[in-house]
Amino acid sequence: MSNWILPGIIVLLFIWAFFQKINAYQSFVNGVKEGLDLFVSIYPAMLAMLFMVAILEKSGLMMTISHFFQQVFPAIPSSVWPMAFFRPISGNASLAILHSIFAVDGVDSLAGFIGSILQGATDTTFYVIALYFGSVGIRKIGNSLLIGVIADVAGICAAILLGMYFF
User: Fold this and answer.
1) Does pTM surpass 0.90?
2) Cβ 145 vs Cβ 127: under 8 Å
3) pLDDT value of residue 53
């Protein structure tokens, strides 16, 4: 039955378009054109963000910063720090790190608890600003960036405190 839901919806849309005297094919083509235009406007910001994430990861800078914070806060598992830094930058990178935490430390570990809370308590601030603000042409991002970073720091601190409290 589930294999027929999407084709059924498409057929219903074509029937509805026929009775409304709407050219369904031309509407579809126009939608594809608008989607392609949106992709072209968003792609440079996405490419720049992915490039910066790759540089941070491959250069070893993120590991250096993680080792520093591990020495300052030894009670917090070291596997959490890369996620805390990548979460505001890239949702996919933070999910990959969370998967690594689950695989290495386990889902019921302190790192697993903190990582799970961190995933829900923070947002991809830099990604949102680069992608969405860039796609609509907003150039003055100072206040949004400051508030987003403050919210991310608060979410990271809350994730660590709640993870340690409930673990």
Assistant:
1) no
2) no
3) 74
Q: Binning pLDDT at 50, 70 and 90, where does residue 54 land?
A: confident
CA distance 114 to 160: 6
Whole-angstrom distance, CA of residue 39 vs CA of residue 21:
30
- Which tokens hold the place of 150? 């403050």
d(CA 3, CA 11): 14
Binned at pLDDT 50, 70 and 90, residue 60 comes out as confident
Joined together, the tokens standing for residue 28 give 């579809």
CA distances from 164 to 78, 115, 126, 160 (A): 14, 11, 27, 6
CB atoms within 10 A of CB 137: 7
Dist. CA 121–CA 87, nearest whole Å? 10
Q: Say if CB 83 and CB 98 are below 8 A apart.
A: yes
CB 151 within 8 A of CB 125: yes
DSSP-derived letter for residue 131 is I
